Amino acid sequence: MIRTKPTRAFINARECLLLKTPHGNGCYYGETDILPKTYNTAADAIRGTEDFIQAIRFDMETLTGEDVTEECAEAWLSDWQGTPADQVPAFVDSSDAFKKWSRAYDEENPGWQGPDPDHQRQEWLDDEYRYEHVAVSERARLERHFRLV
Fold first, then answer.
1. H/E run at residue 21
2. For residue 76, which of 14, 57, 124, 149 sits 20 to 30 Å off, Cα-Cα?
3. Cβ–Cβ < 8 Å for 86, 80
């Protein structure tokens, strides 16, 4: 018999999700639906709210909280079809999950940002110093030849 660990709902009936939202005068906390609403996944809990900067799972019985911003960022990234250069919500932009996702994207899509500036600079330097060892009069003749061809 295979024993599996029971899966926990992201937000249980005795918990709520507090979302820290930035505002011009500071930050405000808003909470999810009233008890006993449950959410099975982080994606379900944050659906329709992307303007927060921190998410806290708050247990109403023990009055304790747990930062679940990373889990929310992973859930948001799981069905996102953008590139690392695209605009993402603040809670995703500052997360480790986004950094990992960006590294994985770079590995899967090398060169997606266009030519590497360091590589272009090295090519320019190679061209610039290609004829360094050749006499000046000979260098001018070679450069004229390459420009004509």
1. strand 15-23
2. 14
3. no
Residue type, 147: R
The residue assigned the tokens 């030849």 is 145
Top pLDDT among 25 and 110 is at 25
Q: Which residues contact 51 (CB under 8 A, 6 or more apart)?
A: 21, 22, 89, 90
Cβ neighbors of 146 (< 8 A, separation 6 or more) are: none
pTM across the whole model? 0.67
Yes or no: say if 80 and 91 are a contact pair by the CB < 8 Å rule. Answer: no
Q: Read out DSSP for 31-61?
A: E-SPTT--BSSHHHHHTT----SEEEEEETT
- What are the pLDDT digits (tens) for 60-98? 899 999 999 999 999 999 888 888 888 999 999 999 999
